[in-house]
Amino acid sequence: MSLSQTPPEHEYIAYIDESGDPGLSRVKGIDVNGASEWLILGAAVFRRQTEPKIEGWIRDITSGFRGHQKFGIHFADLNPAKRLLVCEKMRALPARYWVVASNKKNMKGYQNPWAAMFPSKNWFYCWMTRLLLERITHFVAQDSASRFGSPRFLKIVYSERGGISYEQMNAYYSWLKFKDIAGTQVLTLGELSWSVMDRRLLEVAAHNNRAGLHFADTVASAFFKACDFRDTGECDPQFAKLLEPRMGRFPDILDGRIAGYGVKIMPSFRGAQLTRDQEKIFKFYGYPRQWWAPGPD
Prior knowledge:
The protein has one domain (10-284): Nucleotidyltransferase, domain 5. It is built from seven helices and six strands, in the order E-E-H-H-E-H-E-H-E-H-H-E-H. A six-stranded mixed β-sheet has the order 5-4-1-2-3-6, with helices on both faces. It is an alpha/beta fold. The longest helix has 26 residues, at 123-148. Helix 4 (166-182) links the parallel strand 4 (153-159) and strand 5 (202-205). This is DUF3800 domain-containing protein. Pfam families: DUF3800.
């Protein structure tokens, strides 16, 4: 029997955006005119009851911008004072923020031998979303079990700036779920919590059409600025540090671990061969120690 086209009710919503690009054939740090050294995915996760307030929060934040004429926030277009204001406001919101950061120097020219097995040309971006959603769905499963006694669904909204489509992401997650059920995953350390996912709650939207994507943009871009010096000038971690109170933690308590959970670096902290300035933001969040994903729930 085919699924109804009507999506089930969701209790959580995750907005996902990226900073940097997924290019691997030439990478800065190795090649002079390569793609960005980093691809960073950021997410802002809200509970359903706060979802109607998101647009108002954006308007409240931008009301503090002198001469700001248009709706919304695009971190790259803001001066440092406005960036600080945005992150200071975001640290007080009832949300959780997540980051997966790939330093691509070790990925230059890499070809995924499994890429041909699912119909998506953007396999690297898809793989990064898998790492991000392993953590977010784990949090949602844990939080909904605590609040409701059983899993509750997560709605996922991607920014279309990643060059992905609904069909590509739907095919990728269907492929992953099949492999998880069959026990044939190549990466066995973590797994998505499928009990909180439904393909009818997957959406790809224009940045300006979903206010929540502006928060995801800020998360991704603040961390990009913290560890990039090839495209944006000196590394400046002050913005990403401000988000610390709302970064994902395991367990979800004040002293829960952020490194490896709310903030995940690929490859390993040591393997990335970062400069001292690039290391600062990851050390601030607890590296080199980190959380490791549990087995299937």
